[in-house]
Amino acid sequence: MPAPILGSAQSASKIVEASGRVLLLLDTQQCVLAPTSQGGIPDVKLARNNIEKILAAARKAHPPPLIIHVRNTGDTGDMDEPNTPGWQLIYSPSLNEVVIDKRKNNAFAGTSLADFIPTSAEIIVVGFQTDFSIRATCSAALGRGNEVLLIHGAHKTYPRIEVLHGGGVTTAEQVESEIEAELTEAGVHLLDMEDVEHMFDSRE
Question: Locate the Isochorismatase-like domain: which residues (predicted)?
Answer without folding.
Answer: 22-159
